[in-house]
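User: what does the whole thing look like in 3D?
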Amino acid sequence: MPQLSSGGGDDLGANDEMISFKDEGDQDEKIQENAFTERDLADLKSSLVNESETNQSPNAAAVRRGQQNEHRGYQEKHREHLDGVSKHQDGGMYKTAYPGYPFLMLPDPYIPNGSMSPSSNKVSVVQQSHGMHPLTSLLPYSNDHFNPSPPHLPTDMSQKGVHRPQSQDISGFYSLPQGGVGQMPPSMGWQSQPVYPLSSCGFRQPYSSSLPNSSSYPRFSHSLMLGPGMHSTGIPHPAIVPPSGKQDHYDRNVYAKPHQEPKREKEPKKPVIKKPLNAFMLYMKEMRAKVIAECTLKESAAINQILGRRWHALTREEQAKYYELARKERQLHMQLYPSWSARDNYGKKKRRKREKQQDSTTDPGSPKKCRARFGLNQQTDWCGPCRRKKKCIRYLQGGWCASPTSSDGSAIDSPPSPVDGVPPQHPSLPSSPSPASPSHIPLHPKPSKQHTPRILSKPKTTELSLKALIESSQQHDNLHHHHHDCTLPKSH
DNA sequence: CAGCCTTTGAAGTTT
DNA sequence: AAACTTCAAAGGCTG
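Assistant: Here's the predicted 3D structure for the full assembly of 492 residues, as structure tokens:
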């Protein structure tokens, strides 16, 4: 794995991540017996990024950026084209259900022996109706779609693309069956046993079972599957979703349900190309159902908290496979939508948070603002007792820089806390040491949205219900003597 | 019914 | 360049 040994020295700021990772108490043993070092994973992380960006011929990124100028127009065109295609190709094939192909085998040229580790490392990415996985979406791709190059792609796509053997067009790279999915062997078919079984993937079943009968899927009729989820090449892709709202809404209401003739016949909506999933998102997708089953939770917010903890509890190899998957996701996404930019989707979700933050006069803001507020020297003074110049840890906790110190070491009084003089606590930094899990306390918890100042005047009902759910989940766990980690960080 | 919650990571924008 | 913001998924919940 060239990335691991690249030694590029590019940490990509993984330090914070690694710190928090390292501080996961239940990781200690794993860390010791792990062949990877933290540095290794950091290198891997950075290399995963680097490869897709630097390894591609010079210009994948540049091309993408270069296209930004004309991007809007292009995208409009592109989407119009999609719409057109959709109209043309709407043979009614896709309308019943999303033509998802849940499993994809990922031979990995970047990993010794073609995999990150034994069988368990061969991750099959599952994508069901509400979000077919981009990689899985490759399954329906016939070679025609990529050879020599998709119509929408620059002819030199392969050159600007990933630095890989040229034979490594996507179909080859992902071991697509010759002749496309139409001739896909049963073993790779819908709901069939994936070639790369996941040792602990508990969600495949639920996801699969939740899918409509395979007979309703135009599994292999890719030429007829053009629609809102279709790429202009005719390649179905989960990243393309109609802009009619959330994807999940769309999936539930359109793809997942057998009857939407009326809706479907309405105005052809311009599909939205969604961001490729990152490693954690892939992990969540895979493990969600398992957590739901184990913890008898349904609320995603609670589940995500658990998953976040479990993510940190993963070994480096385990995480690495998701980073690798995510890297491939990005590569594929980039190949499919060379002109796409994450910016395209900016502003599509409205942010009330932004409004909240704007009127929050107690927000210490950036370390720079924080220092300014305390009259500290921007260059030489530390913001807060954390002694970090980059980011005040107290700010991360959502509070003020209590007792910031100036360069001469003198303490500076902090302004009043936003809420009753009590700065919000970082969930990972309990006010009193928890004897149960002191080692879980990260020295420098990774910045997280929840750490930003929040208006806590009154517990939200959602929080209450969340807590209730979590508690009931924990009770359930205790009751059944499960050893699943369904506990959540004590928050607020 | 849009948006929130909640997580991490990638990639965007702002300072 | 660092800091900050937005969006990916998910589904229950809220206003």
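In plain terms: Chain A has 18 helices and two strands. The radius of gyration of chain A is 24 Å.
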